[in-house]
Amino acid sequence: MAARVRYIYETFALTGKYYSGGKFIYKIIYGNENFPVRLFGRFLIDHAQPEKSIKNSIALEYKQESANMSIKLRDNPMNLVLAGTFGDKAFGAHGKIKSDMRLKEMLKLNMGIYYMYKDTKFIAKHNFRNSETHIFFQQGLAAYTSIIQDFRLASYDSLPSVSIGFLHQFSNGQSLKFKVGSDGKSLVSISKAFDKKFLFEGSALLDFNKTTTKNLSYSCGFRIVFNI
Question: Could you report the per-residue pLDDT of 108-158, keeping only the tens digit for each?
Fold first, then answer.
């Protein structure tokens, strides 16, 4: 869940998200309307695991009408990620290659396709390393309301995981999403945008597979956009 903000002149964005358990992630994004390259910085602080407290990454994204490519360098552990999307607003393909510098897991490859037309959105992705397939489908039912479905197949010899829910976007910039899955997990999330400059979001996940004291997790975050 994210706010789509059009970059005007020099734009600087800051996002932060806190997860139950003590994990906090914040990102810095810098872009220019007349230059198709954006700079991303991502920093993770995990108070629950001090020995793995900080994980940083830096990325460059190149975006044009029919192509979107990014390169990301991440430490702890050190790895390099190349990702790209090719196509127009209605149909295209995307892929990602991840290389681990420690040589323990040298290569991870994801590929997929997307299709978007009016109120319909279809995204399919396959992970060649662990043979996992993920299909996402969203269909508008009425004004501001859509039905969403997720289909995940972990491997060829396992049962699929299916979830279904709805997304409602209010005219005041607020959105509400609810989803329940066959894996015993239910998700509720809300977001509120203020004049495309500030976004607040929060979500709660209920996992019935865990004990009553650990079956609830939550997160909350924000996004601020500055035009220089």
Answer: 788 898 888 878 889 998 888 778 889 999 998 877 889 999 988 877 667
- Residue 54 contacts residue 75 (beta carbons within 8 Å): no
Q: Which token pair is 72?
A: 């990301």
- Round to whole Å and give the CA distance between 115 and 124: 9
DSSP per residue over 146-204, as a string?
Answer: EEEEEEEE-STTS--EEEEEEEEE-TTSEEEEEEEETTSEEEEEEEEEETTTEEEEEEE
Which pair of tokens denotes residue 145? 């309301």
Angle, alpha carbons 32-36-39 (nearest 5°): 65
* Predicted TM-score of the model (pTM): 0.74
For 97, other C-beta atoms within 10 Å of its C-beta total: 14
Distance, in Å, from the CA atom of 108 to the CA atom of 223, rounded to the nearest integer, reads 30
b/e per residue, 193-228, with b = 16+ CB within 10 A? Answer: beeeeebebbbebebeeeeeeeeeeebbbebebeee
Helices (H) then strands (E): counts for the chain = 0, 16
**Reduced to 3 states, what is the DSSP secondary structure of residue 94?**
strand
Contact between residue 48 and residue 70 where contact means Cβ atoms under 8 Å apart: no
Are 175 and 190 contacting, i.e. CB atoms less than 8 angstroms apart? yes
Is residue 119 left, alpha or beta, with left meaning phi > 0 and alpha meaning psi from -120 to 50? alpha
> How many angstroms from the chain centroid is the CA of residue 103?
27
Query: How crowded is the C-beta side of 18, counted as CA atoms within 13 Å?
Result: 7
